[in-house]
Structure formats: C-alpha cells, structure tokens
Amino acid sequence: MKIRFNPKATKKSTNLSLNSELLAEARRLNIDLSATLEKALEQEISRHLQAEWLQKNAEAIAACNELTEKHGLFSDSFRKVAKANT
What we know:
The chain starts with 19 loop residues before the first helix and ends with a helix. It is 65% helix and 0% strand. By secondary structure, it is an all-alpha fold. The chain is elongated and about 65 Å long. It has one domain. It contains four helices and no strands. The longest helix has 24 residues, at 33-56.
C-alpha cells in the first residue's frame, strides 16, 4: 500500500537516539540519514496502514470469501467454456 504524502513538505528538525556504531558506519559510508529515515518511515507507515485496513475490513473480507465458497465466482462458467475450447 503506497502512502500519499507531499515530498516537498517543509523539513522539521528532530532529535533521535541511534546506535553509535550504526551511526558511525553510516557516516563513514556517506549515507544520507534523513533520506534513509524518510524511506523507512514510509515503508513502516505503509505496513501499519495495510494492517489497519485488513483489520477494519476483516469481517467484509470473510463474508465475501464465504459467499465465494458457497456460490463460486461469476466467472467460473466462463473458465469452464474457455477450457473446453482449448
């Protein structure tokens, strides 16, 4: 799930506590900490939003799956025709 945010939004200074060895290695490798954290936050937020959506819609998804189990899919008859013609 891709999250939407304004990549041109103003930057806000933030204080963080990081593992000192990781920070030293990142600096040695010239890793852009801000860009790296932004990417990591985007991925983490996306995972949380996906989990939130799945939880919120679990009942509807279960009902849809149950309906499909009972009655099949609308396209099932077309698949049988397509297989017979090959």
